[in-house]
């Protein structure tokens, strides 16, 4: 989430549990990541690491596309967590509602 909120593409290396699913979603569905390898037993070549770093750092091509997508998502994340006197983002509104429900239930008991 931190990378996306700052508009930074990612290089994935899922090791356990839901990380493989998340890495696949970020790479294939959202187009904001590339995957280096999977699992802790993988052998990783320095050339491959360099290749992927160069790829995500490109100003054009796939790296440029990833940067644009992460930038767009970053703006959406910032809008969702905005909390000013005149504007509350969707996350803030939902959290306020959630906490209000909990507090109302607690007052009843």
Low-pLDDT segments: none
Assembly state here? single chain
Number of helices: 5
Number of strands: 2
CATH topology, by name, is Rossmann fold
Q: Element order, helices and strands?
A: HEHEHHH
Mean pLDDT across the residues is: 91
CATH superfamily: Glycogen Phosphorylase B
Overall geometric form: elongated
CATH top level class name: Alpha Beta
Proportion of strand residues: 5-15%
Helix content: 55-70%
* Biggest sheet overview: 2 strands, parallel
How many domains? The number is 1
What is the CATH architecture annotation? 3-Layer(aba) Sandwich
Strand order of the largest sheet: 1-2
Distance between the termini: 37 Å
Task: Using the CA coordinates, give the radius of gyration.
Answer: 19 Å
| Global structural class | mainly alpha
GO molecular function: glycosyltransferase activity
Keywords: Glycosyltransferase, Transferase
Structure description:
There is one protein chain. With 109 residues, the protein is mainly alpha-helical. It has a single domain, classed as Rossmann fold. The protein contains 5 helices and 2 strands; from the N terminus they run H-E-H-E-H-H-H. Helix 3 packs across helix 4. The longest helix has 20 residues. The two termini are 37 Å apart. The mean pLDDT is 91. One of its GO terms (molecular function) is glycosyltransferase activity. Keywords: Glycosyltransferase, Transferase.
């Amino acid at each position: 989430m931190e990378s996306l909120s700052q508009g930074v593409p990612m290089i994935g290396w899922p090791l356990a549990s839901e990380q493989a699913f998340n890495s696949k979603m970020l790479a294939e569905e959202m187009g904001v990541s590339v995957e280096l390898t999977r699992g802790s037993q993988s052998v990783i070549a320095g050339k491959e690491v360099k290749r992927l770093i160069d790829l995500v750092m490109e100003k054009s091509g796939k790296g440029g596309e990833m940067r644009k997508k992460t930038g767009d998502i970053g703006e959406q994340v910032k809008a969702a967590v905005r909390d000013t006197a005149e504007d509350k983002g969707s996350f803030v509104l939902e959290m306020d509602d959630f906490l209000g429900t909990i507090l109302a239930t607690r007052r009843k008991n």
